[in-house]
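Help wanted!
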Amino acid sequence: DKPQIGVVGMAVMGKNLALNIESRGYTVAIYNRTGSKTEKVVSDHPDKHLVPSYTIEDFVNSLEKPRRIMMMVKAGKPTDAVIAELLPHLDKGDVLIDGGNTFFEDTMRRNEELDNSGINFIGTGVSGGELGALEGPSMMPGGQKEAYDLVAPIFEKMAAKAEDGAPCVTYIGPNGAGHYVKMIHNGIEYGDEELIDESYNLLRNMLGLSVDEIADIFSEWNKGELDSYLIDITADILTRKDDLGSDKPIVDLIMDKGGNKGTGKWSSQNALELGVPQSLITESVYARYISVMKDERVAASKVLPKPTGKLEFDKDEVIEKIRQALYFSKIMSYAQGFEQMKVASKHYDWNLQFGEIAKIWRAGCIIRARFLQNITDAFDKDPELDNLLLDDYFKDIAKRYQESIRDIVGLAVKAGVPIPGFTSAISYYDSYRSAVLPANLLQAQRDYFGAHTYERVDREGIYHYPWYKEQ
Ligand code: 6PG
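Answered by r_m:
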């Protein structure tokens, strides 16, 4: 029997996905440009049902038809290169799957180009890191629906399972929809990380707690509504000591320069493109950028004065308020992320199912959290929900926690601890719930210097004011 699926690219993600699929009872064809890597996978796993090939032609020919080929190569040019190598050997109806962190517009282009040659192309977001790939990731496939149906049985077996047993994979939509949703997942991941990092900074530098104390606080928080993978690993990280010998917490020895591979930036760029307010993710991208300016920050820290006011507060009360501010801000971040998907769904004609998306984020992926069940429930109740904040559960949290975040933002600003995520969260909340914003004055300014015109609140039509006429 020929393998029903093959994986191209035997770096850690490709290898782990191949092993994952194999563990569900499949024989898996594998190929890597450098043959020695393929050899190593086979020799490291002699008992597994892996069929190695050392030329792309042999690899393609080893597969059952229609062929299902999952590419796990570096996003960008390498993906195009692999497609170009595969293409001459493929037949109409074959299914190519790109499991990389690919920019969704590239997926749209490839899907169209390949479709013209009768080849199906499924751009699939895969989240969960190395371990997720091996044990069960959350998967976000987009492309031709008929082609997805050909891989669905395999995907459903290899994906993570939520608490209710549902596989964390679902057909997302045509062409680039899957990679788009993965991009938003990553943007949200940036936001979650930023909010946790700000909370840590407040606990550390405003309350003066030790790393050990903060580790305990995060473990405690992880037992409640904040229960999530990222809070869990944060608690664990904070318990870890230097691996090179000192007894310092490792977090104190890690350079404070935030890296990024671009997916958060793409989310923000796309939000600007579509005209969606997505301040929290964008601030998280900026927070990484400013962190990289380490030398400038160190120099500035010596010459720019810090706040001089005295802070008075009750420690335990503030810890609980930080927890509430964190949860409140997380809700704003997801509200913005889902809002962006709503606009994108119309713009790109994808018919995204938000409840289904929340469902497949409940396990396997980096942003997995108890809270995704609340989002799932909200969209189950109302699939057309305009904004998460309007759902009863989230409305109630906002009602109970809004004073806490206001207090924390006030304290943090007084203390001089930067909180771009928290401030953008409360600003978004206040803007969203404002019936009137000062854009009336903005419109007047634009009309004043540029005759850009404005609408009126009391009558129909487009107006221009005689600004330069004496009154
Ligand atoms: C996942 C992650 C992963 C991503 C890293 C890196 O869902 O498994 O999103 O795909 O590559 O988190 O992101 P940055 O390097 O940009 O932080």
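OP: Thanks! One thing I noticed: The chain has a mean pLDDT of 97.
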